[in-house]
Design brief:
Blueprint (H helix, E strand, L loop, with lengths): L2 E4 L12 E7 L3 E8 L10 E2 L6 E5 L2 E9 L6 E4 L3 E9 L10 E9 L23 E6 L18 E9 L7 E10 L10 E5 L4 E2 L8 E2 L7 E7 L9 E10 L11 E4 L4 E4 L30 E9 L2
Parallel strand pairs: 14-18
Antiparallel strand pairs: 1-9, 2-3, 3-6, 4-8, 5-6, 7-8, 8-9, 10-11, 11-16, 12-13, 12-17, 15-16, 17-20, 18-19
Length: 312
């Protein structure tokens, strides 16, 4: 067992700004909190090693990003010396960001026991495990997303606020994605159902190519918000929105697990959670197929939710 010694890395930035970083070192993991006042940087774009934040917050007083990572994940490096075992990584911002670049070394150091030996890993096996069930939810929201709406009637062209979330209990941090959303005139989809595609092709917001429908910035990885512009579909009939929700490893986004929307100004698809990886969206106009999936948990990691009936 490693005995806790001390946190050895002070915050160090390439550029001097009003930033602060706190690090809590656990037995096998670290929790890091980054805060900054008067910043133009979107905190969701920060990375701890190669991992996105597990939670972000933006207020008039400043921005905050929180990270949780087990050692040897997220590109956390282990350095073994005569007396210590150190775990090192950095908080960085995208090089393409308009804000001042951020680079903060962070890490934890522990006293090395005399009988310590490195653990053995099978390089051919890599699984992510969690405990407890995943509880998914999807609701129609008020315009400011402060609560669930009491109306299901929307005028043509107005925005329909939708929020989906997953309660993760004791799982490692997961990101919530919408694999597919279809509007239909029936509460259950069938071979003869009349449908209108909203999100297809494993996370491509196709309705936004020709309308003002779009994803909204995340407040946390376990929730996703979107505005769907009310469309002319099956006039006089109830409309149901069927969505497939997926909880996924945020460090393993690929063309089969993503959230993409169309930038009509620049005529291109953009990855909502990390525009620097927008190449994952290049398949949105063809056929998206992800890499071989890694196991997240022995339980269910996706579910289909239905909201409605809506009147438009």
């Amino acid at each position: 067992m490693l005995a806790f010694l001390l946190l050895v890395f002070s915050t160090l930035a390439v550029f001097v700004v009003a930033q602060a970083v706190t690090v809590d070192c656990g037995k096998n993991s670290m929790s890091v909190r980054w805060t900054e006042k008067n910043t133009q940087l979107d905190p969701s774009q920060l990375r701890l090693g190669d991992c996105p934040p597990t939670q972000v917050s933006v207020t008039p007083q400043g921005s905050e990003a929180a990270f949780y990572a087990e050692f040897l994940t997220c590109n956390i490096r282990r350095l073994v010396t005569t007396n210590e075992i150190k775990f090192e990584t950095e908080i960085t911002s995208p090089s393409l960001s308009k804000a001042t670049p951020i680079y903060y070394p962070v890490g934890c150091a522990y006293k090395r026991q005399e009988d310590w030996a490195p653990p053995l890993y099978d390089p051919l096996l890599f699984h992510i495990h969690g405990q407890g069930e995943l509880a998914f939810r999807m609701d129609l929201m008020t315009d400011d997303f402060s609560g669930v709406t009491t109306t299901t009637t929307f005028s043509l062209g107005s925005m329909i606020p939708v929020a989906a979330s997953v309660s993760q209990q004791n799982h490692q941090p997961l990101i919530l994605l919408l694999d597919e959303c279809l509007a239909s005139t029936t509460p259950e989809l069938g071979p003869d159902s009349h449908v209108y595609p909203v999100i297809t092709n494993k996370g491509c917001f196709v309705d936004g190519k020709n309308t003002n429908s779009r994803f909204l910035p995340r407040n946390q990885l376990s929730e996703i918000r979107l505005n769907v512009q009310a469309f002319k579909f099956a006039t006089g009939e109830d409309v149901y929105l069927h969505c497939s929700l997926v909880a996924w490893d945020p460090t393993n986004l690929d063309s089969g697990n993503k959230a993409c929307q169309y930038d009509r100004t620049n005529s291109r698809w953009v990855l909502v959670d990390d525009p620097s990886q927008s190449s994952l969206c290049s398949c949105c106009d063809t056929n998206c197929q992800g890499r071989k999936k890694r196991e997240i948990t022995a339980g269910t990691t996706s579910v289909t939710s239905v909201i409605g009936p809506l009147v438009m």
